Amino acid sequence: MTDLEKQFGDFDGKNPFVWSLFVEFTEQLVERGFRHYSADAVLHRIRWETSVGTREADSAAGRLLKLNNNYAAYYARKYHRISEATDGFFHTRRVRGILGQVQMPWA
User: Fold this and answer.
1) What is the spatial distance between Cα 43 and Cα 67, in angstroms, rounded to a whole number?
2) Fewer CB in 10 Å around end: N or C, the chain?
3) What single DSSP character describes residue 48?
4) Cβ atoms within 10 A of the Cβ of 82, count?
5) With the C-alpha atoms ordered 78, 84, 85, 91, is the resulting torsion angle positive or negative?
6) Are 75 and 43 in contact (CB under 8 A)?
7) What is the pLDDT of residues 57-67, one digit of tens each?
8) DSSP 3-state assignment of 80?
9) Quick one: 91 exposed, middle or buried, by C-beta within 10 A (0-12, 13-18, 19+)?
């Protein structure tokens, strides 16, 4: 597992609301008829909604969300794993992990 994969796994485990929002916003796009979209754009919307929008990021912690741009690829792949009907919705590139394959124990 690469350092970035580990960082993403840690972040994802500590911030499950980000995944919930990612799924919600992506499903809105699919319902509106988009066949492809940018995972990075979805992350930007999450940033917006949790900083100045109507959604609270983590009110218990009372902190601003720090969402690494590099996580977009992992959220996209995680979404593809749960939604076979929209496989390919996000364009992804090859990412190297252990044995040249993406290792996603958190997916």
Assistant:
1) 8
2) N
3) H
4) 10
5) positive
6) yes
7) 554 455 677 89
8) helix
9) exposed
Distance CA 85, CA 81 (A): 10
* DSSP class of 72: H
* Contact partners, residue 91, CB within 8 Å, separation at least 6: 36
SS3 37: strand
pLDDT, tens only, 60-92: 455 677 899 999 999 998 998 888 777 789 988
Name residue 52's amino acid: V
Kindly state the tokens that stand for 62.
Answer: 């009372």
Give the containing element (helix H, strand E) for 20: helix 16-31
Helix or strand run (H / E) with residue 17: helix 16-31
- Please state, in angstroms and rounded to a whole number, the distance separating the CA atoms of residues 70 and 12: 13
Please tell me the distance from the alpha carbon of residue 107 to that of residue 79, in angstroms, as a whole number.
8
